[in-house]
Write a structure and sequence with these properties.
It is a single chain. This protein has 122 residues and is mainly alpha-helical. The protein is built from four helices and no strands. It has one domain (3-119). The protein has helices at 3-25, 32-57, 66-89, 93-119. The longest helix is centred in the C-terminal third of the chain and has 27 residues, at 93-119. The protein starts with a helix and ends with a helix.
Length: 122
């Protein structure tokens, strides 16, 4: 796993999530920028999946529990599409706010995945 990649992902996703959440509170309706933030988050998580598969093969496995890491990653992969579907169902400000809060949750999960991969010692 690449430490700087995970931390950069957490920061960028947190900024995107905060921006989308603020837009939702400002009564901005669903738009392409909200979808773009969700899509960018999904793209970065797919990169994370690929890196998570390759890293143990090349000998850079986690110091924490691998099952816990994958549960976090799979759950993080489910949040952006679920929040986006919710936003399509409710195209008002609350749908946008749900996407923002979902992205903030993903940012926290990515940071926690970083802790599981690098910090914990079994």
């Amino acid at each position: 796993m690449i430490s700087w990649l995970m931390l950069t992902q957490a920061i960028v996703i947190a900024v995107l999530g905060a921006g989308v959440a603020i837009a939702g509170l400002a009564k901005v309706k669903m738009n392409d920028l909200v979808l773009g933030a969700s899509a960018l988050t999904m793209l970065s998580l797919i990169v994370q999946v690929v890196a998570s598969i390759v890293a143990p093969i090349v000998g850079a496995g986690p110091t924490g529990d691998l099952l816990e890491y994958w549960v976090y990653l799979v759950t993080a992969l489910l949040i952006p599409p679920a929040a986006t579907l919710w936003a399509f169902a409710d195209k008002g400000r609350w749908g946008v706010l749900v996407v923002g809060v979902g992205l903030l949750a993903v940012a926290v999960m990515v940071y926690r995945m970083h802790q599981i991969w690098f910090v914990q010692v079994v």
